[in-house]
Amino acid sequence: MTQALRVEDLHVHYGTIHAIQGVTFSVDQGEVVSIVGSNGAGKSTIMWSLTGVAERSSGTVEIFGEPLPAKPHDIVNRGVALVPERRRLFSALTVQENLIMGGYRRARDERMEADLERCFQLFPILKQRLKQRAGTLSGGEQQMLAISRALMSDPRILLLDEPSLGLAPIVVDTLMETILRIRSEGMTILLVEQNATQALEISDRGYILEVGRFLKEGPGVALAQDPEVRRAYLGG
Ligand SMILES: Nc1ncnc2c1ncn2[C@@H]1O[C@H](COP(=O)(O)OP(=O)(O)OP(=O)(O)O)[C@@H](O)[C@H]1O
Ligand SMILES: [Mg+2]
Question: In which order are the strands placed within the sheet that holds 205-210?
Fold first, then answer.
């Protein structure tokens, strides 16, 4: 199995704060892997370091067997797409304009039309809302758009930073099913979540992050049922 992502002994500092204190993990091609942890554990910092936004103090990151480039733009071109925490849509722009922005690195070619079609198949509602401003969509629709925008860059690995944040439980269920559907079409997915149970249940493997370090790792379902993990993260 080809490794999509390999992170070894990653450290990240913000000034004197040692936010990531030596984490090692990997994502195989076609896997869904989740990193779960509470507020401030460092989940977003890991995502930012994988997209060139947070600087690594030390450690190595390989993407599809090659060193991760330093610049965000080059990282996108290598096939890494981030769906950021709180979506970060262009709220004054329409759904259509947000999708086109997601595909900006490519010319407006036939592939782009095909990718748009793929988004509409995943999320038919978006096709009906093309001219609507992103800021006026519901929370669930905004998350669909954020994921679609990331897919428009035609990534090989999708990074999802707390996609369930602020969504009603039923919308979260749909979202988790969608993640599995995207995976079934061949995508590799790294998911970070505070919503530990559901994230772990849909993941091949998971890692429990506790202030900058991994506490445990294992198969997703086993971690979701682990008594220690349940006590600490899943409310019993
Ligand atoms: N730009 C920054 N400058 C200084 N400290 C930061 C910065 N960004 C994050 N931190 C700190 O790094 C730690 C990890 O933050 P991070 O945002 O990665 O956590 P998180 O797990 O994503 O949390 P949440 O679930 O609330 O999104 C926190 O203590 C946070 O205050
Ligand atoms: Mg975060």
Answer: 80-83, 157-161, 188-193, 32-36, 205-210, 213-219
